[in-house]
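Figure caption, in words: inputs first, then the predicted bound structure.
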Amino acid sequence: MNRLLPILTVVAAIVVLWYGAAVWLNGPWVQDQAARAGVTVSGMDFVGQTMTQDRPVLPAPHQVIKGLYDGVAGQAITSKKSLIYHGWITLSGTLLGFVIGTGLGILLAVGIVHNKAMDLSVMPWAIASQMIPIIAIAPMLAVVMNSLGASGIVTKAIISAYLSFFPVVVGMVKGLRSPDAMQLDLLRTYSAGEATTLGKLRLPSSMPYLFASLKVGIAASLVGAIVGELNQPAGLGARLLSGSYYGQTVQIWAALFAAATMAALLVVGIGRIETVTLRRMGMAR
Amino acid sequence: ADDVTLQLKWVTQAQFAGYYVAAAKGFYEAEGLNVTILPGGPDVAPTQVIAGGGADVVVDWMPSALAAREKGLPLVNIAQPFKSSGMMLTCLKESGVATPADFADKTLGVWFGGNEYPFLNWMSTLGLKTDGSAGGVTVLKQGFNVDPLLQKQAACVSTMTYNEYWQVIDAGIAPEDLVTFKYEEQGVATLEDGLYVLEANLADPAFEDKMVRFVRASMQGWKYAEANPDEAAQIVIDNDATGAQTIEHQKRMMAEIAKLTAGSNGALDEADYQRTVDKLLAGGSDPVISAAPTGAWTHQITDKALQ
Amino acid sequence: MSWLIFAVVFWLVAWGVNSYAARVAGRNRWVRLFVPTLFGITVLVVWEAVIKGLQVSPIILPPPSAIGAKLASSLPVLWGDLVQTFFKGALSGYLIGCGAAVLVAVAIDRSPFLQRGLLPVGNFVAALPIVGIAPIMVMWFGFDWQSKAAVVVVMVFFPVLVNTVAGLSASDRMQRDLMATWGASYWQGLWKLRLPAAMPFIFNGLKIAGTLALIGAIVAEFFGSPTRGMGFRITAEIGQLGLDMIWAEIAVAALAGSAFYGLIALIERGVTFWHPSQRN
Amino acid sequence: MKDTLQQNLPVIEARALGLTFQTGDGPVDALKDVNLTVEKGDFVSFIGPSGCGKTTLLRAIAALEHPTSGTLTVNGMTPDEARRKRAYGYVFQAAGLYPWRTIAGNIKLPLEIMGFARDEQEARVKNVLQLVDLEGFGKKYPWQLSGGMQQRASIARALAFDADILLMDEPFGALDEIVRDRLNEETLKLWARTNKTIVFVTHSIPEAVYLSTKIVVMSPRPGRITDVIDSPLPRERPLEIRDSRAFIEIAHRVREGLRAGHSYED
Amino acid sequence: MKDTLQQNLPVIEARALGLTFQTGDGPVDALKDVNLTVEKGDFVSFIGPSGCGKTTLLRAIAALEHPTSGTLTVNGMTPDEARRKRAYGYVFQAAGLYPWRTIAGNIKLPLEIMGFARDEQEARVKNVLQLVDLEGFGKKYPWQLSGGMQQRASIARALAFDADILLMDEPFGALDEIVRDRLNEETLKLWARTNKTIVFVTHSIPEAVYLSTKIVVMSPRPGRITDVIDSPLPRERPLEIRDSRAFIEIAHRVREGLRAGHSYED
Ligand SMILES: Nc1ncnc2c1ncn2[C@@H]1O[C@H](COP(=O)(O)OP(=O)(O)OP(=O)(O)O)[C@@H](O)[C@H]1O
Ligand SMILES: Nc1ncnc2c1ncn2[C@@H]1O[C@H](COP(=O)(O)OP(=O)(O)OP(=O)(O)O)[C@@H](O)[C@H]1O
Ligand SMILES: Cc1ncc(C[n+]2csc(CCO)c2C)c(N)n1
Ligand SMILES: [Mg+2]
Ligand SMILES: [Mg+2]
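Bound structure (magnesium ion present):
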């Protein structure tokens, strides 16, 4: 309860501001329409009209919630208007990309920690790689993947992986280097090799770092999947774009909130796994 | 059956009804074809898809096809189901635009990505500069919808007769409050929605045969769609994976599309081609093609398909 | 074929040289510059050779040489786009967003209630995909750089806020208790202890935000822009298959983004010189 | 008249003091029924096993913790009032210097906060740096100094603003025996010179006996005072005093007190 | 025959040993001209002020640092060979238990690495846990134990695989006096029982005198040995021995040695 109350308060404040902004931003259209029709609107009429438009500049919260509700509960989940249907398509790409990206990130991190040349050369370029506007690459990547015969989900997953590997590399390099000199020396007095050190010391002690980066990584993965869907027929990304294409602001906002909710759930999910893992490893107190 | 992959220029909508109808009505199957239709979108360049081998045949507009040809991608028009152009500028009357002469010092929304050339050409014939200098027009790269007009961020935006125009209407603006300039009527129209393949493939008799059957079935689809617009619209809806299209909108779109395909039996009219090339060569400041292309179209397929 | 063999050989040789250099003189400043440079050159050479070897069409992926040539011949255009997108859009949005985030963090610092409410909501907002936010911002703030800046503000605000709030509680208890024994006021404690102690965290946020800013501005241009800017150029060129120009813009974006990141890292070095991670 | 009154008033007075922490696994009695009187000029040591509440008691005196029962007065005021009157100089177990300030900057920090004039600040910094033998190190950053030097800097910082009461929580815990011996001597000298009231926490029996006029032996669970020993040693104490019979006897009494209060499990 | 030879060979032998660190501000002579012989069954303590090279010397013996001059042999081999033969049990200053392993898991760690059979591992864990009085704590995680218990666990870990040579770097530095006393007693008992060779680093004079058969006094800059004291105390040592005349005398000699080598600056 005392964790929920502050959140609810903030949400309530945002909703109030939001309604205000909706009136403010949608108002000009109401006035223009009235002017074109040669009538005047005022008072409650005006406010009411700002919140019931089909194509508002800013949909009022209840419109978005209705959009979400229609998309989630108002449709069969196999329907193409169902947000669950599209969410699932996005999720599958997100998860596949996340697995690839995380695997790649961990491998790279292990390489960086064990190989000085990789350490020096990979990092600056990994940073530079993240500066590339992925949305510009996505269509070209789709073409290349297409010509290689890969399916849509793989293309999406590659973009996801591309965005999620970076936080994993950064976090894991930190994590794998987190054992202090004494912990490393201890294994040396046992005359343990690098592989043993990795398995018995570096990997376990990197777990908190790993989970922290997994949380960032899964959110990045989702963004990647959505960007990858801009040129695919289905998924939340496609929904966002078609909403934008037809000026369906409510559809955009509903898809937007569906995506953010999914991200939040994924992060919470990883948090759960983290708690369980760390507890089983005895690292959660 | 022979596999054919068709890449569309835009998302699934009645603009491409002929192909969806042909598939749904079994016209392709009857020709022994197994056709995969790939929807496009703002993020898809059909020319690039075909260059990468992702499609056998693409729907594209002639300006971008010719530009690609000059860049070294030998695309050939094998059929032209669209006789006329649906592009226009739609302006709010209250912005004070009544004739093209009023464009000066106004902000105009334009689609880029290969669609800007007819517009630039038009402006240069009007003698209006597009670089933002005084007395010219301010050009916006418009997004995917008509919001700039509704929000009065632009005096005019690009629309298609069959689509965006109706979005403006749907938004609640009466037709009397709008002024439209059809490219067709302004004499700056270029050919839209044609079928293009790679030149090298045409030499292969098997491919040629496939395309003959494809074009024949596609045209059958188009004519069926013209005759049965409501059924065609429903077929389009059934094929839309985003679930964003509505049947009302697609019916109306189908009706408008039928006007554009009406004059065509599928074969490219050489005069239309020549007009398009002339427009593009005249260009604006930065012409899209620098020399008249050769071999950019053929009747090889339609001759066989339509006999 | 020979191009492919060349690529493999070049890669192996460069890798060998790098391994040797890193092992023998990994601490030397010049070697630390040389190794990543050679790595970058290797990537470019292998890219070029693979394209030549597999005869990849330049319409699919142009070779680095063509990109370089285009880059060199289009400098004025690229510069104009960089000014529009980076300096006007990304940078102003970055400054506004980061500045606002730090101020808000200080403002909510005294209220644990607000913090507990704002941070989860903030994380939720941060998870909103920009491709969804960008068209909305274009609708609200118009086509010019202001809407790009707005997208950047939204993107950078929460990472910086979260890090700053974390940083403000990063001073350890003993350090805070010291302030208490001296009878320091809230503002004295903030100014002399908690802000300096928060700097490593704030810079962490600033660096994350730095990787987001330019991308956000470019992406926003996909949803409407004047006829200049990096995102505009990329969409306009795709229609005429100007892949070399697109890649030139991408190269400029990567370069400018990395330079910006480097600059933040440099300032961080100066400001948090005292932090163990900066002392090695 | 007022002065004499102050002189007679105890500097620190605790009556039936109790302090209970509410933790996840239930309440922890960190202090229970603590009675203590400290007079002006006393050098008091708290000694006891880990967890017996030494730090907690010291923090309560400095108003860093708030007692849950009993009364605690400092100079006749509440500890919080005394804190706001800047009565305390507190030296923590670790040096706790701010790494972004030089040594001089660290020492200046409380002076800035208390609003001393700029040249007064400089003068005092110079003065205390000399006192702890760190002249010439003012411009160095904390991490450029050895642990012992950092500890001395933190003592200098606590001395700089001339608080009446010096609270020191195991200030020499991290130092080696020789350095510790020397700092013990210095601390005694300083105390003799300034006649401050010093409350000192330590683990070390010799240290407690060597330094204190009053040794408070504590024992844990719940934290309480088991013995208060008034030292018969003279105020001037050379290091050799540690080999004297009196010294060894007090040390023995402290050790016995400690052992009695010490349970086996840790 | 071979056995006798081994018996007579010194376990650790350093001749003119030097070790210089290359640092940013130039070379640091951590050890200079160190000569030392340790026989089988010796209990050797290194004592000296901070920075005099105690840890460095211990690390060199364990092949964790490499001497830059002189020779160092362990059981007649180089330290590195001895390390690969798993001759060392090393106890670090802090307990250094891996927090994600239980106490038993921590003790098992070296056994896993050295490839002991599973039931042999269990047996040994049980055995050493008993030895350090931690039966029943095997399933606990390190943070569930007090500091002293953790330290004992880390000693158990070093004992589990029965290395000949036990190297202990200030193992009791972080503990309070009472716990420390008890662990000192336990260490002596253990040593008596197993007849291992133990090398022990400490800051504390009483600790060094109480435990050792040989006390090595070191001094800094450059780190060198200033005195080696062979203790006349008997092998059995009750705690009370610390009040004996012999004890006090050795302690005095150590203190003088330390003071001589101690420079003022830190
Ligand atoms: N903030 C706190 N919350 C809960 N329990 C606390 C807190 N601070 C201290 N304690 C508990 O109060 C008791 C006394 O702690 P205190 O730190 O005063 O001991 P100490 O005598 O200073 O020990 P040490 O010699 O180890 O420093 C301990 O049991 C400790 O766990
Ligand atoms: N890795 C290193 N690089 C450079 N100098 C070092 C290194 N390790 C130790 N030194 C220096 O070598 C000298 C001896 O250090 P060492 O750790 O052996 O001292 P010590 O006697 O163990 O001190 P303490 O009692 O503080 O642990 C010191 O001056 C130290 O600064
Ligand atoms: C980014 C982008 N914007 C607009 C068009 C133009 N366009 C071509 S077909 C079509 C469908 C009409 O409803 C439209 C709008 C494009 N190709 N790409
Ligand atoms: Mg304490
Ligand atoms: Mg040491």
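Chain C has two domains: 2-56, 70-278.
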